[in-house]
């Protein structure tokens, strides 16, 4: 099945470059481009892409607000944030807004295509070392912290809490299963229940939640 992609960036060269790279992939189709967040919101509604490659710093409507609107309006489109720096303070807020992960703009063609495929498949694109550093650093200086309540954490079983911590540490389902010595299908069930109980969209938001809840500390 072809993955439909919308590219959002205010720089023409970036849009054209990504469009050429992704267009060369047999399983990916670039269905449109947008020059700012406001246009991105309209294009998502019109084109119904599977994945949105979203720049953060743009005129009219930035990538964070655009991500928030897209996620709220369309439950199927996945947002993959593009950033120039791996410690961009805005990336953390984009993850909180509902982005499924982030990718550096200097990523190779293979990394870009693989990132699109991962997000399209419903997984979170979490680079463990960079994501953990980013989340822990910028959760400290968030302008509007929203720490999760103990009541929400109390809904999780002891095993689910353990799985949540491992998600935040960047482990895949297979790695968690190996660590806990259980079947991978069991971990998938735990992850699904965690997302439902905490009212979260995906593994990325689960990782953010774990850091905000102080279940995981900088290491």
TrEMBL record:
Keyword DNA-binding among UniProt keywords: yes
Chain ranges of the Response regulatory domain: 4-120
Residue span, HTH luxR-type domain: 149-214
Keywords attached to this entry: DNA-binding, Phosphoprotein, Transcription, Transcription regulation
Positions of modified residues (4-aspartylphosphate): 55
PANTHER family assigned to the protein according to its UniProt record, in alphabetical order: TRANSCRIPTIONAL REGULATORY PROTEIN NARL-RELATED (PTHR43214:SF24), TWO-COMPONENT RESPONSE REGULATOR (PTHR43214)
Name the record gives this protein: Response regulator transcription factor
């Amino acid at each position: 099945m072809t993955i439909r992609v919308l590219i959002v960036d205010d720089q023409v060269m970036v849009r054209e470059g990504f469009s050429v790279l992704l267009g060369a992939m047999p399983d990916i189709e670039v269905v449109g481009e947008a020059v700012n967040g406001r246009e991105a919101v309209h294009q998502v509604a019109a084109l119904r892409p599977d994945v949105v490659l979203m720049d953060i710093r743009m005129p009219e409507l930035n990538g964070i607000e655009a991500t928030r609107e897209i996620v709220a309006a369309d439950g199927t489109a996945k947002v993959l944030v593009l950033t120039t720096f791996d410690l961009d303070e805005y990336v953390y807020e984009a993850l909180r807004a509902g982005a499924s992960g982030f990718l550096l703009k200097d990523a190779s063609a293979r990394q870009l295509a693989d990132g699109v495929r991962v997000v399209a498949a419903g997984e979170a694109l979490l680079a463990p070392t960079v994501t953990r550093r980013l989340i822990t650093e910028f959760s400290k200086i968030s302008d509007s912290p929203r720490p999760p309540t103990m009541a929400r954490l109390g809904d999780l079983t002891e095993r689910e809490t353990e799985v949540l911590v491992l998600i935040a540490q960047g482990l895949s389902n297979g790695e968690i299963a190996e660590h806990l010595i259980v079947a991978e299908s069991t971990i998938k069930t735990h992850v699904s229940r965690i997302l439902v109980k905490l009212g979260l969209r995906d593994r990325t938001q689960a990782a953010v939640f774990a850091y905000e809840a102080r279940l995981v500390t900088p290491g």
